Amino acid sequence: MSAQSLETPAKIDWDAIRRDFPILDQEVHGKPLAYLDNAASSQMPQQVIDRIVEYQTTFHSNIHRGVHALSQKATDAFEETRSLVRQFLNAREDAECIFTRGATEGINAVMHGYGRKFLKAGDEVVITHMEHHSNIVPWQMLRDEKGIVLKVVPMTDDGRLDLEAFQEAITDKTKFVSCIHVSNALGTINPIKEIAAMAHAVGAPILMDGCQAAPHLTLDVQDLDADFYVASAHKMCASTGVGIFYGKREMLEKMDPFLGGGDMILSVSFDETVYNVIPHKFEAGTPPIMPVIALGAAIKYLTAIGRDNIARREDELLAYAMEKLDTIDAFKLYGPRDTKTSVISFGIGDVHPHDIGTILDTAGVAVRAGHHCTQPLMKRLGIPATARASIAFYNNTDDIDALVGAINDVTEIFGA
Ligand code: C6P
Q1: What is the C-alpha separation between 123 and 143, in angstroms, rounded?
Q2: Is 351 helix (H, G, I), strand (E, B) or coil?
């Protein structure tokens, strides 16, 4: 089966799209690279690389400060990305879209700026068993500092949130809910809009961790009624070093800033500092200008392909992979089989996932093996780790065939 024979609209030339990603055209250990670690970090198309080169070679400078032409140009490009992020999320206004260093920093900004200011001992914060460490540890820090109660919503055996238990966990003591939109470890797509409605019914704001949703799903923070939404650019065909931190205006305005410094102030004296308006209140110091501008190019790129087309393509590749993998006796999938993104978290008999990852690597197949920064989730499943293949729209059936072939090698080597 060739890439073209998948049932995507004829007008999309997926082979040409793959050629936009120069990094994919190489051999690893003498084998063609099959990059299937996109949930950790996706790859960058030439269009984004070109934009970075253009910035670095023609208008690199600091923003919001200089009156000179280069600084103006950099400022315009930086602020253009903010508008693109607004459209990408369907936020009401640009000012609600803030740039952080990554999703992790966005969650920490909410814990410090909202949690430390408004939550007190005995207040309950609800998270889930499926969270990435970056949506667990900040709330534990708040618990230890303030005496809040951290409630954890359980997960079912097949890796979904238990919605009845979610409803029970939310009481009039619930003052904040923080929930993963799509699981990085399993790919589960959570009914986040329904969860937001549960939180709002008791007046609690909700933070949605959209790290694994943003690269795959069409997002609408207004429709979801997200109070906060975070994502990381390096999972969206842009670079490391920048995250998207969305907040509703009324939330951001009443919060304290997380970091203090230049650009986030209107005036400073030794007696008093007046903070700048949003979004600048949350962007202290020189921001990651180049990565933000690259993110703008990445959003244009993803939007030009069409996010529905991306989701369809990934679903088709996932179905193609599952059909083949299910024929391998020792293959065990973790997490749900439907309502998921293109993440395949798996084990092979009792072979340690690190051994699986190493053998796959020798075949040129890049996957992640480990706990995926979700140790409580792994404990819930009774395993230390999984191997995880995560598919992006620029993958093709050759990549999947390489994965399946290498897994067959694992079964032979270990007699699994
Ligand atoms: N998950 C993975 O391989 P940062 O590091 O700030 O860009 O993103 C953190 C993060 C938060 N939430 C979710 C759901 C995530 O998936 C991640 C990053 C990577 O699964 C690296 S651990």
Answers
A1: 10
A2: strand
Please provide residue 411's backbone torsions phi and psi, each rounded to the nearest 5 degrees: -65, -35
Instruction: For residue 151, list its beta bridge partners.
Output: 126
pLDDT in tens, 144-165: 999 999 999 999 999 999 999 9
- The CB of 227 under 6 Å from ligand 1? The reply is no
**What is the phi/psi pair of residue 349, to 5°?**
50, -135
Rounded Cα distance, 305 and 130, in Å: 31
Q: What share of the chain has pLDDT > 90, as a percent?
A: 96
Q: Where in the chain is the domain with CATH 3.40.640.10?
A: 50-303
In this prediction, residue 11 carries a pLDDT of 83
Which neighbouring-strand residues pair with 332? 347
Query: What value does the mean pLDDT of the chain take?
Result: 96
Which tokens sit at 282?
Answer: 């949350």
Cβ pair 99, 283 in contact under 8 A: yes
Supply the residue whose CA is at minimum distance from atom 21 of ligand 1: 40
Q: Which CATH superfamily is domain 3-45+306-414 in?
A: Aspartate Aminotransferase, domain 1 (3.90.1150.10)
Mean of the pLDDT values across residues 92-118? 98
Instruction: Enter the CATH code of domain 50-303.
Output: 3.40.640.10
Q: Show the tokens assigned to 385.
A: 């780790």
268: which 2 tokens?
A: 């400073």
Say how many Å lie between the CA of residue 183 and the centre of ligand 1.
Answer: 10
136 in contact with ligand 1, CB cutoff 6 A? no
Q: What is the pLDDT of residues 169-206, one digit of tens each?
A: 999 999 999 999 999 999 999 999 999 999 999 999 99
The Cα 100–Cα 253 span in angstroms is 17
- Residue 10 has a pLDDT of 56
Question: Of the candidates 22, 5, 23, which has an alpha carbon nearest to the alpha carbon of residue 14?
Answer: 5
Q: Ligand 1 centre and the CA of 236: distance in Å?
A: 12
Please answer whether residues 135 and 180 qualify as being in contact, where contact means their C-beta atoms are separated by less than 8 angstroms.
yes
Q: Which of 307, 108, 80, 114 is nearest to 227 (CA)?
A: 114
Residue 4 has pLDDT above 50, yes or no: no
Q: Is the CB of 232 under 6 A from ligand 1?
A: yes
Is the bond preceding 191 in cis, omega lying within 30 degrees of 0?
no
DSSP letter, residue 383? -
Report residue 172 as tokens. Answer: 């009039």
Q: What are phi and psi of 312, to 5 degrees?
A: -65, -45
- Comma-separated ranges of CATH 3.90.1150.10 domains in the chain: 3-45+306-414
Q: What is the pLDDT of residue 9?
A: 52
Tell me what pLDDT residue 3 has. 39
